[in-house]
Design goal:
The protein is of the alpha/beta class and 347 residues long. The protein is built from 14 helices and 13 strands. A seven-stranded parallel β-sheet has the order 3-2-1-4-5-6-7.
Length: 347
């Protein structure tokens, strides 16, 4: 059995759970039993809807070492031989303790320390083997490393099937602000759109996706009612790939969603909501894969800047075509399959 220890919540969003679910799906397809353990109730609905058992510890997700006594009483943890851990709050002490009699897989974004694990995954575009070699230069044991976008754990639907149709008359914009949108970016962008609407053609459409843990759905619908633009507000989206393929330009925070957008070849303007997103956003920009619009936390004219970039991209098919081609070359949608195979090789 494989046990996955991951969390979701208003502050950390849903990204950790969603990428772990992609890995869990592939493991299940290969005949492996997978169960989840989470600190709180926020992740449980996502997990059970996908057909997996989830045990809730009732602990503080920020204090992982203190959860160990409760964790060690959980049947799915006791019965597991492999544990996948996905949390920014993990410590070396935690990993050492649970790794005494189990093989440990850790999903990393931060290059923070030499994690005492068997397999380390960093699928980000900025994943750097040299940085890890330096981190582990004094460590007695170096883990197997699965690095780079070829290991991006996307849902099976995002396996690439063909090139994106880059239309001459681009008019449909997709706005994604993450699972929790704790900074209310969707509402701020929609409000600014009312001010900036004159720069867009009358037939432009704007699709805002409200995250599962966002509390702004009512507010977004209220703004939509008074808008002169054609705005659609969606929640609980189950056909994200179809939605991405139907749009011409996307606006998205710099999380795992960027790799989904890459697999669809959708020209994207990205921005930062948290420190751990900065390196990815800048790397995507430096490589000419996406346009970086800045940090939503510190830029006082962030919303206006976003819509200026959107308008420019809608009116430049050559740039959209270039972004699409570079994005699709980065991700093939088979990362979760590769991860599952390497995890099962630990036996």
């Amino acid at each position: 059995m494989v046990c996955i220890r991951a969390d979701a919540g208003p502050e950390i969003g849903t990204g950790h759970i969603m990428r772990c679910l992609s890995i869990a799906d592939r493991l299940k397809e290969k005949g492996e039993e997978v169960r989840f353990i989470s600190a709180n109730e926020h992740a449980k609905e996502f997990i059970t809807k996908r057909g997996f058992d989830c045990c809730v510890l009732g602990t503080d997700l920020r204090e992982m070492e203190s959860e160990i006594p409760a964790l060690e009483r959980v049947e799915s943890y006791i019965d597991s031989s492999i544990v996948i851990v996905d949390s920014y709050y993990v410590t070396e002490g935690y990993l050492c303790k649970i790794g005494i009699d189990k093989r440990i897989v850790y999903i990393d974004d931060m290059f923070a320390t030499a994690y005492p694990v068997d397999v380390l995954i960093n699928y980000n575009v900025y994943a750097d083997k040299d940085k890890y070699d330096l981190l582990y230069s004094e460590s007695p044991q170096k883990p197997q490393m699965l690095l780079g976008p070829q290991y991006t754990p996307l849902r099976k639907e995002f396996t690439i099937s063909g090139n994106k149709n880059i239309r001459e008359n681009a008019k449909k914009v997709l706005v994604l602000t993450g699972g929790s949108d704790s900074l209310h970016i969707a509402a701020k962008l929609m409000e600014e759109l009312q001010v900036s609407s004159e720069q867009f053609e009358a037939d432009c459409e704007f699709v805002f996706v409200c995250g599962a843990l966002s509390g702004d759905l009512k507010r977004l619908n209220e703004i939509k009612k008074i808008s002169e633009k054609k705005i659609e507000v969606l929640s609980n989206v189950t056909n994200m790939k179809d939605l991405m393929e139907a749009c011409d330009v996307a606006v998205s925070a710099a999380g795992t969603t960027l790799y989904e957008l890459c697999s669809c070849g959708l020209p994207t303007i990205t921005y930062v909501l948290a420190d751990n997103q900065i390196e990815a956003a800048k790397k995507f920009s430096d490589e000419g894969i996406m346009i970086y619009a800045g940090d939503a936390r510190t830029d006082n004219v962030f919303s206006a800047h976003i819509w200026q970039q959107v308008n420019r991209l809608l009116n430049n098919r050559i740039d959209r075509l270039s972004l699409s081609e570079r994005a699709m070359a980065l991700v093939d949608g088979k990362g979760a399959e590769r991860i599952a195979e390497d995890i099962l090789d630990l036996r």
